[in-house]
Amino acid sequence: MKRRPRVVFFDVDGVLLDSLAMHLKICEDLSRENCLGLKIPTPDEFKKLARTGVRISPMKSFFRALGFSEPDAERANRYYEAHFMEKYPAAPFPFVEDVLRNLDGAGMALGIVTSNIRANVQKALGRSWGFFDPRLLYTYDHIEGLTKAQALTAGVRQLGIAPEDAIFVGDQITDRDAAAEAGVHFLGVTYGWGISREDKEFDTVHDPRELAVYLLNGQEHS
Question: Full-prediction pTM beyond 0.90?
Answer without folding.
Answer: yes
